[in-house]
Amino acid sequence: MNGDTSRSPSPPAPGRTIDIELGQHEVITVELDKLDPDPSDLLELLAEGQCKVSIWTRLAVEYWRRGWLDAAERIAQAGKDALEASGSEASSAPLYSLLANIQMTRATSAPKLILYDAREDIMRSERTREEYYRDAAQIFNQGEKIATESGRLGNTLSMLTRGVMQMGMRAMDDALRSFNSVLSQDANGNNIVALIGKAKVLYTQRDFPQALKLFQTVLRLSPNCQPDPRIGIGLCLWSMDHKAKAKAAWQRSLEVNPNGGAASLLLGLEALNASKDETQTQEERKTGLLAGTRYIERAFKANQRNSAAANALCELILLKGQHKMALKLAERTIQFTDIKTVLTDGYIRAGRVSHAMGNQAAAKRFFNQAKYGQPLNLMANIGLAQLQIKNGELATAVNTLDSYLQQAQTSRQRSPEAMVMLASLWANPIPGIDFTEKGKARELYDQVSKTFGLPDAVAHATNGNQPHHTGRSSRRIAEDIDMHVEIARLWQNDNGERMRRALKEAWRISQATKQSNPRLVNNVAVLEYLDGHYDAARSMFETAITQASSLDSSTADGLSTTTLYNLARTYEEQGEESMARDAYEKLLDRHAEYVDAKIRQAQMLADLNKPNDAHELLKQVLASEPNNLNLRAYYTYFLVQSNLPRPAKEFVFATLKDHDRHDLYSLCAAAWIQYHQARESRDASPKGVEERRRGFQRAADFYQKALSKDSTLAVAAQGLAIVIAEDALGTLGGALGPLAHDEGMKRFQNAREALDVFAKVRESLNDGSVYINMGHCYYARDEFDRAIESYEAASRRYYSGQNVAALLCLCRSYYAKATRDQSFAVMNTALQYAQKAYHLNPQDKAILYNIAMIQQKAAEMLLSIAPTKRSLKDLELAIQQATHAQKLFASLAADKSPVVPYSRDMADQRRKYGDSMLRRCDEHLATQRQHETEAQAKLDAARQKRQREREQQEALERARVEELRREAEELAEERRKAREQALEWSRDIKMESDEERERKAAKKANRRVRPEGGSGDEAPPAEPRKKRRTGKLKKSSGVEEGEEEALFSGDEDEKPAKKRTSKKRVVRDDEDEEEPTGAPRKKQIKSKEYISDSDEDMS
């Protein structure tokens, strides 16, 4: 552990002396147990006696045992000087190793880094651990040089020193080899230092069983060894989940070494962790917390520069509210730790303390540093988001939490705390973010609710889930009032039931955050830049530069330098060349040696078509830093792009020969140059063919070597795929030998194999060249449509339609497709791409030749097809283009340039062919006009016929509609009249019924007043009483009855009356039926179901 001085040699045995000879007869005995802390007298005595190196080393070690490092260093230095003065420098190598070990001992108590903006733990005047290790390495190398010259290289002391140094510098693999070398030279393999060193290395490599065995071996060989191997035994057991045994090992270590800080620290951490177990009683947890606190304080007092002890104690002090002391401990942790997790904890606690003390800027900086070290650290992300919310940076807080949750989702580290925070942010309107994100807020709250079984969960009401939030953090989330209020607000307009369930868990909304100026850091801006959000990245970079001015000069300089460079790169991506140029110049004014800025300046000059200026600038940079491989890689690229293949080849081979023969970029560049030269060679002689074959083979060898160093190197894989597709190791389509009988099948097979490779390369190499090569393979397989898709993807996605090569590939594919399909429209598309390429590169006369060729070929194609498959407009356009092609061929054939990229004879032959073709154009035009005239006449006649038929049909339809309308009007009129007549009849019936009732009433009254009768002789003979009718009266066949029946029955013929089933009179209204001709009309009146029992009624 850092800050541990227990690396000094083991305690001395009592009663030890050393004899120093002065001259031949005088011997002075020095008692090693009674050494004076001031070695001045002893140094004079040793110098006078011209002692051997073993005496100097022994005395220096004795002083070191007692912790007097300064005195030990003085003795070792004096001994080295004395031996050099006496000419015995060859024997001074052990003293160099001793001095190196002393420096490494000082390094263990030195800070790993220095916080120049630290407020409590000031370490600016101290040297860093790296400086001590650098001095130790320098001293050790000097000793190794002396040992090499004296033939004493490779002794145990030097190998142990090397191993300890490598372990301190975190070169664990090298340290393991050094310790193994020592153990292999030991007869029994029992070198304690080597065993302990190897065990520590294996522990860091997580090989816990083997490390445990080694620590146990050390304990068996040396029970009193320092550092105590019981500490390592306990750590291994703890990592292997044997917690009780690990605790027992640490307790035993504390018994043996009561002042051992490491054992106290580990026992304290174990007690603190145990006190958090909620299954224990409150008293047990309190006892564990107090015991852990005492252990931690004891460990920190034993070594106040122990970062782990400071980190643990900081948490305890922070809980007590002692902010200044907690900040000092947090800064101590940051400055002295060399473990990433402990460093992250230190930054987090420093951020928490700064936040509590109101220093938001410092807190934000600390949380950002913690997040940079461990992007998936929960506390770092939440702390940073809290600060961003408090500063009003709501969009940035959303990005922080969303990025964390997206990354943590794959590693099953999704935190409910982070989800609740992010959901709360999404639930509120944020400037720059669409409010529709409340759907995401609902989703996150649903996940949290389901996790804890809250009433807000969707499934809670249906499956009867019960809350299962047993942990303290879970309870705090489940009992968070604001969260439930937020959920209720999200659902208030859509789901009243869920809103109500949430409101039952909440009681009010509280607290609002203060607004402040937003502050962003450089690494967040870089992430935005990599995601292609250049506007956001630019704003963040500018903000970071402004904020850096408020820091101290040393920190501000480094931060502003890096941020300014990133800002200049953002300007470039946004097309702000002038602003980017100004930023680079400002950067170089501050640091003239900033190589990357000069490289970007050179690239901008090259983009402005100033290759000579760019070349001169690159030469200047190379002169100052010739060993910079990134610079050499860019210079190689620049030479290739500048069409300087020979200098590029010489330069890249010099890089491989003199700097790094395994440099991947140089290997791929060398392969590309070899392949390009071999491919472009036109030497058809046997020697030339053989040289081309060797060039292709060397290119393939370079690609294979690069892949052997990095099997995921997509550029090398793509290069080999090109070799396969073009059959460069075979006949190259007949260029390197005679064609085989199955050459076509082989070409298709090679293209298929290359496509498989390109498809895999596309997944890892985001570059347009991959799509271009895939297009080549599709073209070789005559799949022109898929080739066009690949070329267009490359041109549009990567080159913005400004790459001449991609445009020419599209032109070629459309030309081949048009030739195959005999399509003039597709041929015109090919012509458009060729014209665009010529517009971008008007110096290339080969493109001009292709334009003329396409125009002539289009006319030839149209002249060769039937008139039915072409149009007069297309034919006239093709003839016009062919006429223009004649002018181009004539100018190309007459070109007097010494070298042209085409054949003048072929251009002249094309011109002559075009003349003969154009002479036949008038005939074709006449034929096409006649054909289109006849076709048009037929079309007009057919169109007129269809028009007449359509008019006739429309007339018939109008007549039909008019007839339907008239019939509907007549029917409506008849129904109206029938309804009026029915109403009139109803009124008549009602009046007759009233008269009938009055007449009956009068008759009844007359019967009551009639005399009972005369004498028997005078009275007339009584008529027999008629029998009551129990049936229904039949209808008479009078005029009125016939008319009534015809009107209401709905039948024109007479029908027998049906039996009535209703007790009331019913009038049937059938309007549509007519009365029988000549039928008598009679109204039928029935007011009751039965006829009244009255003689007068029947008379």
TrEMBL record:
Residue spans of biased composition, Acidic residues class: 1040-1054
Gene3D superfamilies (alphabetical): Tetratricopeptide repeat domain
Cited InterPro entries: Ctr9 (IPR031101), TPR-like_helical_dom_sf (IPR011990), TPR_rpt (IPR019734)
Statement: the UniProt record of this protein carries the keyword Nucleotidyltransferase: no
Region (Disordered): 928-954, 990-1099
PROSITE patterns: TPR (PS50005)
Keywords: Repeat, TPR repeat
Protein name: RNA polymerase II-associated protein
Organism in which the protein naturally occurs: Rhodofomes roseus
Lineage: Eukaryota, Fungi, Dikarya, Basidiomycota, Agaricomycotina
